[in-house]
Fold this sequence. Notes:
Oligomer: heterodimer
Order of helices and strands of chain B: EEEHEEHEHHHHEHEHEEHHH
Strand content of chain A: under 5%
Number of helices of chain B: 11
CATH class of chain B: Alpha Beta
Number of helices of chain A: 17
Structural class of chain B: alpha/beta
Largest sheet of chain A: 2 strands, antiparallel
Shape of chain A: elongated
CATH architecture of the largest domain in chain A: Orthogonal Bundle
Shape of chain B: globular
Number of domains of chain A: 2
CATH class of the largest domain in chain A: Mainly Alpha
Helix content of chain A: over 70%
Order of helices and strands of chain A: HHHHHEEHHHHHHHHHEEHHH
Distance between the termini of chain B: 23 Å
Amino acid sequence: MNGLNWTDTDTWIVVVGFLAAAACGLPGCYLVLRRMSLMGDAISHAVLPGLAIAFLVTGSRASWPMFLGAAVVGVLTAVFTQWIEKIGRVEATASLGIVFTSLFALGLILLRMTADAVDLDPDCVLYGAIELTPLDTIALWGWDVPRAAVVNGSMLLVNAAFIVVFYKELKISSFDPQLATTVGVSASFMHYALMGLIAATVVAAFESVGSILVIAMIVVPGAVGHLLTDRLSIMLLISVVVAALSAALGHLGAIALPPLIPGGEFIDTSTAGMMAVAAGALLVLAVAAGPRYGVVSRWIGRLRLSLRVAEQDILAMLWRTEEWSGGAQTSLNRKHIMEALALGPWSSWAVLTGLARRALVRQDAAGFSLTRAGRDQARDLVRTHRLWETYLARYLHVPIDQLHLSAERLEHATDERLQKALSEKIGSPRLDPQGKQIPPARD
Amino acid sequence: MASSARTSEHSANAPLSIHDMTVAYHRRPVLWDIDFDAPQARLIGIVGPNGAGKSTLIKAALDLVPRVSGVVSIYGKPYRQQRRLVGYVPQRESVDWDFPVNARDVVTMGRYGQIGWCRPVTRRHRAAAMEALDRVGMADYARRQISQLSGGQQQRVFLARALAQEAELYLMDEPFAGVDAATEQAIMAILEDLKHAGKTVLVVHHDLQTVSDYFDWLILLNMRIVDAGPTADVFTHDNLHKTYGGKLTLLSEAADLIAKQR
Lengths: 443, 262
């Protein structure tokens, strides 16, 4: 790779980033589905007193007491939130805000009381130290593996196992907690189990990737998954893929982008920060390009619709011109069509080309005229239009000068079945309210 | 209170027997001294004004909201021991329809109690879910994500989920809310089938016009039970006036007219 100096260290950084992100993202999916994404933020702050108390009691920074302290406080966060919601009669998010800021403050006081003996410095808490994780290794089956990879990897395995074993229970208690409880799956038990697991995950990921990335990784992978699929299992898989992509792209960005910034002396930037940026970019991409909810696909859908409407308008206009001239075949030039229907040059070209290709109109020196097939379709459209005008005038008493526009909107949405029903309803009249003939139905 | 339900003797084996139940939210009582035995194999309507505690009655019976006092028994035993016998249809608005599951997944949830903790969903249960979907005429929509269904279709899926539970007693919270007339008739036909199969169905209901057509037994509720018993005896102008407090005079007039029709 030109300019990039990729080493084993870089590989380990990406692996640690992926393991932490995936470990957070999996249970995060359920937070997203329960509309409780803020809980990730809350728990990642609220675990602080748990860490401090674990340290005070054991006097060490060993992992297990820390996990335990964090998990307990994580569950307590959820418990307190429910209490305050019930007793204080405030909404869930407000009560969550009260609980986690109080616990965070308590944690800070406790840390101070330990006379700064714990080396938890704020930078490290916020951004983590993922770049340093490959230095701290432990031997695993004869390999030197970064401790952070082992910790986050184990957490990922625990979370994946939890989701596999309790797949059904998590699904029903997230979708319909009341039904879950009535079929014997205690929704509150599942809730607290999930919160405890998230707290432990947060602590595992904390040290290596920092709290900002933890919060991002709890919410973003699940959010991307939710945008891209309608299946829960696939949503969970997508969250893992998003975790992997953000880790790889994030680290790549962290070492590749800074030298490109002009005038700077940067050699690289924070991998954790860039991972969050990469995850954010993936979310934007999902919002834009998602198959059903995506902006792009909706835009394409609208464009298709407006082209179809323009097509139908042109056919109907050509038919009406023929009607005017007593049934003789007539042609209209493109400029005339553009002006009458207020079409732009690009869309009129696209629509007319499409119509000609499907042999609904033909083009000669005089302009565009209907083919036989085109005339059939056009007559049908005009029939629908005039049936609607009759219906609107007769049943909804729409004034005659407003009939055309309303009928115009309706005619494009009317299919064969509806046209038939409409005709039956108004008794197949021959003339519309303006006295124009309603063309007969095709047989 | 002339109703048979107000006697102190409770039959030991009623599908649902509620004795002296009081429920409060934030100490404000919403249900007072609820006391009745639901008879077997009936379609039972629970009728009353907004805020009368109709949904709360069902939820309290299912331990979903705490009771201040009172005893609930299902076929003579506490609910905890009888979960399998009870199917619940919550209000449609109680869940998030954007949840990434399809119709069959939702119906399969009705089987989770029978499947048991941590066991996978087997083919037998999936087949049962499909059968339930078929019964409500939704088999063609099995793989449709649930937000893609209309309100009436969503309600049918909820009903199918309860059917898949194969319960003896069904508690339904406004199954007709927001459904079209055709769906209402389809749901009603299924409820009749359940009754003929010996099941007991309690339905929270809003439309007084259809009460006497739909239900053969009735609970008139407004924080307390105004009256409970066979619809023919209970659905009277007097009782409706007591239930609706005379505020909804048009409704009681409507009920009056309906009562005169018989």
